[in-house]
Here is the input.
Amino acid sequence: MERTLIADTTQKIDETVKISGWVKTRRDHGKIIFIDLRDRSGVLQCVITPETNNYDEFKKIRPQWVLSFTGKVKTRPEKLINQEMVTGKVEMDVQDFEILSEAQESPIDISAGEMNLHIETLLDYRNLSIRNEKVGAIFKVYDEVLKSYADYMRSQNFLEIKTPKLLSACTEGGAEFFKVKYFEREVYLAQSPQFYKQAGVGAFERVFEVGSVFRAEPHVTSRHVNEYIGLDAEMGFITGPENVMDALEETMKHILKNVREKCQDELKIYGADVEIPEKFPRIKFSEALEILKKKIGKVMEGNDIDPEGERLICEWAKKEKGSDFVFLTNYPWMIRPMYVMPDPENPKETFGFDLLYRGVEIASGGQRIHDYDQLVENMKKKNLNPDDFKNYLEIFRYGMPPHGGWGLGSERIVQKILGLKNIKEAILFPRDVKRLTP
Ligand code: AMO
Here is the structure.
């Protein structure tokens, strides 16, 4: 008999079907055994009685065993209907079962709705914890974010590209590189597809990439990991950084709209609201500093806005502008990379921006320098040696349109949508300063 998915059993009342999945829970009531069987589509209550074939063998079956059940789907008595479940109106009277795989006793209880475990324990037992319904919900939202991003980019005629992650030189300079052995040489893991996506613009005008990014940052924070998935984009023929912000704003709206529509069950599990503001407020970096100083009484040390400042600016944007998002624009030249276009009216500022969402930076971007001589000049001003960027500079010898783009952190989006305390919860198998397993 062909397998029926559990979610489809609601359409098969009074039919005999075969379902397959994992034992989520087992409850014994005298001789009657209730099994909640889980497959990729849902969970179904299955009833085993002494009439079930090989009933005695069922005694040994425990959570996480993988089974097939053949039996009749029937409507539950009115008072036993579970409104919370898609399959809550039906159950299966099991006639026959087959054991597909046995399981040892689980070291953590993954059947519970809420797994009140320390994050490190959750991650130590990651192979199991991702089977929990609440943990699993995170990855359904993540899937929707990735899908919506790629779909939207394509709908706007961006070409999907994949760029190399093994590099002979550090992309943007700086100390955030992992060195790895490559035959007899030492090479670096890419900490951004920056240069390659710009090369992509030279050929295709609009490109995007969903790819791994490696950062050798020793930070232990709730928003940093050492390997993450970047949602990058780059577009040509822009007339200013506003075009890039407009495109990023529409992209985020599209992602959130899809998550809100398609992940209702998952959002409910987390009690998460997805609000989509009509317009994302845009304020200059310098104005943000003023707001922090005047309205909130926080003076930033140095030239940048620290995580606490980002949180406070987001609180301000929510209160004053009713928006979970806020763009900070015109970043100071001092703290932006050499490829970011300086503002011709005020060279102390650039056409670089950040996008903050619910207290955290989720994207950086801006207009880039597209003129060869200007780029060389800017490198020198930043005390970089243009000879170290020979391959990158090549792009600008052969005709580059004005262009710009962004890098979005996919995991931070999911973290903020669901209100997860730590970014690592939004990563299937995270890599941090200490963790390289499982
Ligand atoms: P940036 O370095 O700001 O910009 O990175 C872009 C976005 O990537 C995410 N991110 C991270 N997520 C998790 N862990 C980390 N350690 C981490 N570091 C960064 C953030 C951040 O906003 N080349 C530019 C982008 C561009 O201008 O196009 C860049 O890499 O969400």
Remarks:
- The radius of gyration is 26 Å.
- The chain is about 30% helix and 25% strand.
